[in-house]
Amino acid sequence: MAISLSCPSCGGELNLHSYTPYVACTYCRHILVKVDEGYRDTNVVSEIAEDMSPFQIGSEGWFEGIHFGLIGRLRLAWEHGFWNEWYAYFDDGRFGWLAEAQGTLAILFEPKNPQVYRTILEDLQDHDQSFLLLGREVEISSVPFVVSDIKKAESIVVEGEMPRMSPLGTFFTAIDMMGPSGEIATAEFIPQPPARRAFVGRYVGFTDLRLSNLRELQGWPRR
């Protein structure tokens, strides 16, 4: 479903893939929120992400035989660097994320099973005591995951379409878990406004995704 609208801040023409709850205008960078059958300006302005990522909004690929396209991005920062989380739509109707961090890629989705969702978050609810969590085993859909990383991070850039608002400059706790065969799960605990999220997926290779419409970067082959 393609949706066309004019930004209420600058009048720029925006083309969306759905009535997503939040949109960062391509032109003025204002973040818009869905209201009734339209959008209003939140008067929050996102910075522009300057990095050497080969991805961009509009990049496309394939995952497990399903075509997907990137429609949004979160740029996140922590004390040792940055990473990107690209919001993606899939041709089978799903929405998910392509995580790009330190040269690795992973495709993740929010668990459909509410019990799986609750298990992840309840097992990790004492996240402020990271020394107790590192190395802990968390069973997700009969797969043993191990907590491998815990960090404080913040959203610094929003681009394109987003399923929810990630307050810029608000710190949250991110917890990564690894499975025995390339599986990955992550949990996020956001203090203000209070929110908890969980995602499950697996690591993927760059070439395995059969990517197209990438950014033109020096040293990267044109696709």
The percent range for helix content is under 10%
Query: What percent of residues are in strands?
Result: over 45%
- Total number of helices: 2
- In this structure, how is the largest beta sheet organized? 8 strands, antiparallel, barrel
Give the strand tally: 15
The coarse overall form would be globular
Give helix and strand order, one letter per element, not per position: EEEEEEEEEEHHEEEEE
Q: In angstroms, what separates the terminal alpha carbons? A: 26 Å
Would you identify the regions where 5 or more consecutive residues have pLDDT less than 50?
none
Strand order of the largest sheet: 7-8-9-10-15-14-13-12
* Estimated structural class: mainly beta
Mean pLDDT, to the nearest integer, reads 86
Rounded radius of gyration (Å): 18 Å
